[in-house]
């Protein structure tokens, strides 16, 4: 009995001491080392004293079983069109922490389910903001989207460098194949599932799932699978299966890889020993591959936690059998300075290592030397080659980074100015007057309905025909602003702007009274073959000149520039002479809409939105210039700003146009209806103006005034056409092949990815505008 106890105790002691020798301290003394089964190594800690600072504080929820660690993230207001919808996630579950600068956390799944009756979808999103030491690991995570016809999108920025990135998105869709059946294969190849790597190191980001957003003529996918899902996941941690479409656990969380680092740079940190994080004597400092920040590593031959004073401890290679001493011929000798040596048995010489000179009998000396010399020359050559290659690779990466920064776009700082009204009075209509005018808002009087409201035709007592717009419910706080805007709009007097005659404020929703423009929109005439007049090239040019002039006029308004914010062909009306009249100036837009109407988050629609809006959430005069560029392209090509008839990469007309132009294929995409009559020289000039308007960076786009003047110049050319000598065909050829601008060829690639992102949001807004 006594004997047995003693033996047990001894065994325990032996085991314990062995364990103590093997485990290096990972946390500060007297600090908990684990939360549940997850190790929490310093600089992370479960209390403030146990962590490097509060950024590395992990909260351990002990009431859960097993206890679960969480990383604190902050509530944020992301510069994004979605910022006013709440869904920020403040605690992320930590799956594991690695001292080489990464940790795994789990992120929730954004879901979007469609109501089978109404066709409306409940789009969900999450916003996440990491504290400064953390960011999503670039290239190790991917965006995965499940569900046909669903847009999944992740967008954000690096909060330390304030670099906003182009959104990453993908859309699983094959129009011929949208209804779930379990005979499809399980590859995530694009029909029901798509995935795309997230290339950016985001630290503030949003991801969104939006389903049923296309108005295209195909069987609605939600009839077979009502819910769609978007999530971020570590590469390889999710395998798609068709059954996930109908049988997905939406409360599931997916692991993502997060990078972490301390401080700024090694050099800066080493100057100040008190804040230098590599506390262990046997540690080394390495700058993070993508800055800022550095990592500490135990020197070779040591192991443990380099962030703690005695964290790195010698590895006993000899007892661990991790040495490469020749078995049977040499003996391993550990050195506490982090290394070991092999000593050859008597009668043999050499370094005793398998990959070294080994142990040989003393007599064979010469051959060994020859061998080792040639060996070291080889090693030297190899080493040089390696250094050369890594340097070259680094240079390439830096170049890429440079272009990336160049093209990432800068935040537009300019605020859209507020303009105050003058004394001129706006006609205030009574609700009775307008009820009479519209036969009590009869259905027959409806001219159109969209995301912003319903438009009625009305006849005033003085027999004037007007268009009356019933906006969506307004926010009472905005009323004053609304009135100022109405007063301002009433003062605009330009033959190419639809005149606002007055408003009625007696109803719950303000009513706006406009001049009636009888002949529909430019959009109808370009795209609806059944009721279109033939828009000749000459007429299209005229429309471009008139619209450009109207926008230039508004941008140079006396008090402050008036930004249209929604330039598109469906907002350009045609009167009985087919004179263009720009409609829908801002007024309806200042009224915030409710959550279901993502439309106004984006304000612009279809393919017209300025891609910089993603970063700035602001629309400026230069955004109008961009949208106007799309209108020009639409007039040239007769194609819709967004179309599913074009291949994926060309769905956005702006992108489609720029790439065709870049490849010298402009004539291929000119509208067949005008190609015979159009003057190639004029076409080229308009195309060039359009490509300048479509430049990525707002500041590189011309002003609306410059655009309008150039367009008017062409018109004079047109009038004197017969006096002009035609360009030789050779000259035309070179013109057609010339890239639209020198900057374009540099940033062409990123421009495309960026536009693809804006394309997605445009689609979201598109579907919501149209009819729901
Ligand atoms: C911790 O436990 C959970 C389940 O209890 C398991 O999924 C996970 O892999 C474990 N993590 C580690 C680091 O052992
Ligand atoms: C721990 O988790 C439980 C269950 O989710 C929750 O009710 C509780 O508030 C959490 N405790 C802390 C300290 O976060
Ligand atoms: C999370 O971080 C924020 C900001 O640093 C801080 O105000 C908050 O108290 C922290 N929450 C927890 C639970 O540590
Ligand atoms: C906003 O937050 C509340 C409370 O956290 C939640 O019930 C609600 O669903 C959230 N709304 C949205 C749109 O996510
Ligand atoms: C950390 O967790 C992730 C996700 O669960 C897993 O893939 C990875 O292997 C883990 N790493 C370590 C070092 O345990
Ligand atoms: C769409 O699906 C059909 C039927 O499965 C297939 O034949 C076709 O190739 C797919 N189209 C694309 C573009 O993947
Ligand atoms: C399932 O979809 C595939 C591909 O579109 C089609 O060929 C097949 O006929 C469908 N099966 C059923 C049972 O509808
Ligand atoms: C949609 O497709 C159906 C069948 O191909 C066709 O009859 C219908 O006219 C189309 N509708 C539109 C608006 O194109
Ligand atoms: C949704 O509606 C379609 C037809 O409109 C029907 O075939 C389908 O069964 C419905 N799905 C559910 C889940 O009700
Ligand atoms: C996904 O599939 C690969 C290859 O078939 C497999 O190695 C991996 O473990 C799977 N991952 C998951 C999360 O099932
Ligand atoms: C869904 O996943 C959560 C978390 O992983 C789990 O707790 C829950 O039991 C799952 N539900 C179903 C129905 O599988
Ligand atoms: C904590 O330290 C990290 C790395 O040195 C730093 O980036 C972060 O700003 C610090 N956090 C606080 C709250 O001081």
Automatic annotation (TrEMBL):
EGF-like domain location: 314-351
Chief place of localization: membrane
Membrane protein topology class: Single-pass type I membrane protein
Disulfide pairings: 325-342
Entry-linked CDD domains: EGF_CA, STKc_IRAK
Residues in the signal sequence: 1-21
Domain Protein kinase: 441-723
Catalytic reaction(s) noted: L-threonyl-[protein] + ATP = O-phospho-L-threonyl-[protein] + ADP + H(+); L-seryl-[protein] + ATP = O-phospho-L-seryl-[protein] + ADP + H(+)
Example GO BP: cell surface receptor signaling pathway
Alphabetical keyword list: ATP-binding, Disulfide bond, EGF-like domain, Glycoprotein, Kinase, Membrane, Nucleotide-binding, Phosphoprotein, Receptor, Repeat, Serine/threonine-protein kinase, Signal, Transferase, Transmembrane, Transmembrane helix
Transmembrane segments: 367-389
Cellular compartments annotated: Membrane
Coiled-coil annotated residue ranges, if any: none
Gene Ontology molecular function terms on file: ATP binding; calcium ion binding; polysaccharide binding; protein serine/threonine kinase activity
Function: Serine/threonine-protein kinase that may function as a signaling receptor of extracellular matrix component. Binding to pectin may have significance in the control of cell expansion, morphogenesis and development.
Protein name: Wall-associated receptor kinase
Source taxonomy: Eukaryota, Viridiplantae, Streptophyta, Embryophyta, Tracheophyta
């Amino acid at each position: 009995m006594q004997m047995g106890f003693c033996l047990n105790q001894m065994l325990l002691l032996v085991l314990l001491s062995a364990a103590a020798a093997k485990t290096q301290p990972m946390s500060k003394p007297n600090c908990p080392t684990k939360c549940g089964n997850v190790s929490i190594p310093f600089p992370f800690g479960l209390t403030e004293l146990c962590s490097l600072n509060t950024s590395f504080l992990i909260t351990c929820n002990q009431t859960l079983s097993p206890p679960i660690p969480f990383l604190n993230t902050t509530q944020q207001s992301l510069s994004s069109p979605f910022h006013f919808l709440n869904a920020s996630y403040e605690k992320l579950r930590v799956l594991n922490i690695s001292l080489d600068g990464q940790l795994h956390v789990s992120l929730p799944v954004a879901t979007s389910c469609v109501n089978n009756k109404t066709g409306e979808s409940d789009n969900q999103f999450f916003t996440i903001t990491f504290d400064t030491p953390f960011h999503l690991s670039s290239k190790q995570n991917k965006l995965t989207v499940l569900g046909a016809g669903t847009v999944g999108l992740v967008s954000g920025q690096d909060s330390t460098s304030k670099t906003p990135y182009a959104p990453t998105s993908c859309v699983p869709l094959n129009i011929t194949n949208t209804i779930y059946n379990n005979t499809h294969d399980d590859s995530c190849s694009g029909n029901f599932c798509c995935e795309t790597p997230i290339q950016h190191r985001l630290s503030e980001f949003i991801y969104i799932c939006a389903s049923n957003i296309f108005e295209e003529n195909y069987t609605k996918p939600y009839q077979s699978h009502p819910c769609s899902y978007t999530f971020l996941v570590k590469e390889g941690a999710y395998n798609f299966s068709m059954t996930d479409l109908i049988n997905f656990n939406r409360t599931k969380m997916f692991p993502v890889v997060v990078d972490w680092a301390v401080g700024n740079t090694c050099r800066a940190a080493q100057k100040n020993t008190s804040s230098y994080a590599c506390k262990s004597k046997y540690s080394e400092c390495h700058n993070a591959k993508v800055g800022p920040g550095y990592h500490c590593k135990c020197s070779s031959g040591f192991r443990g936690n380099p962030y703690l004073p005695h964290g790195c401890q010698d590895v006993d290679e000899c007892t661990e059998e991790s040495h490469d001493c020749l078995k049977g011929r040499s003996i391993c000798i550990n050195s506490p300075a982090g290394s070991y040596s092999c000593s050859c048995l008597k009668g043999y010489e050499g370094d005793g290592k398998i990959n070294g000179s080994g142990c040989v009998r003393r007599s064979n000396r010469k051959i060994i030397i020859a061998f080792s010399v040639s060996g070291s020359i080889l090693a030297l050559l190899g080493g040089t080659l390696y250094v050369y290659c890594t340097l070259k690779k680094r240079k390439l990466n830096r170049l890429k980074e440079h272009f990336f920064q160049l093209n990432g776009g800068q935040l537009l700082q300019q605020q859209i100015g507020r303009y105050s009204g003058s004394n001129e009075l706006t006609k205030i209509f009574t609700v009775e007057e307008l009820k009479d005018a519209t036969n009590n808002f009869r259905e027959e009087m409806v001219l159109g309905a969209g995301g912003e409201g319903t438009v009625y035709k009305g006849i005033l007592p003085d027999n004037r025909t007007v268009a009356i717009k019933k906006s969506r419910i307004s926010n009472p706080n905005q009323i004053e602003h609304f009135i100022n805007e109405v007063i301002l709009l009433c003062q605009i007097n330009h033959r190419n702007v639809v005149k606002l005659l007055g408003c009625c404020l007696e109803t719950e929703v303000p009513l706006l009274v406009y001049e009636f423009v009888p002949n529909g929109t430019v959009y109808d005439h370009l795209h609806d073959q059944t009721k279109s007049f033939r828009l000749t090239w000459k007429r299209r040019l005229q429309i471009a000149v008139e619209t450009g002039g109207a926008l230039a006029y508004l941008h140079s308004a006396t008090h402050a520039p008036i930004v249209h914010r929604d330039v598109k062909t469906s907002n350009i009306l045609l009167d009985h002479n087919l004179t263009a009249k720009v409609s829908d100036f801002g007024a309806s837009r200042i009224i915030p809409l409710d959550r279901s109407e993502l439309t106004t988050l984006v304000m612009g629609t279809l393919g017209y939105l300025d891609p910089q809006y993603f970063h700035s959430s602001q629309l400026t005069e230069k955004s109008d210039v961009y949208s106007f560029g799309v209108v020009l392209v639409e007039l040239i090509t007769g194609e819709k700003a967004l179309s599913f008839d074009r291949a994926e990469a060309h769905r956005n007309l702006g992108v489609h146009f720029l790439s065709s132009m870049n490849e010298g294929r402009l004539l291929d995409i000119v509208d067949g209806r005008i190609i015979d009559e159009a003057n190639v020289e004029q076409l080229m000039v308009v195309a060039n103006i359009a490509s300048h308007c479509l430049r990525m960076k707002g500041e590189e786009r011309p002003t609306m005034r410059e655009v309008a003047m150039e367009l008017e110049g062409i018109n004079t050319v047109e009038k004197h056409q017969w006096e002009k000598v035609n360009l030789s065909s050779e000259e035309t050829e070179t013109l057609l092949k010339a890239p639209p601008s020198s900057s374009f060829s540099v940033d062409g690639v990123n421009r495309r990815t960026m536009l693809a992102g804006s394309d997605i949001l445009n689609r979201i807004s598109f579907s919501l505008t149209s009819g729901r």
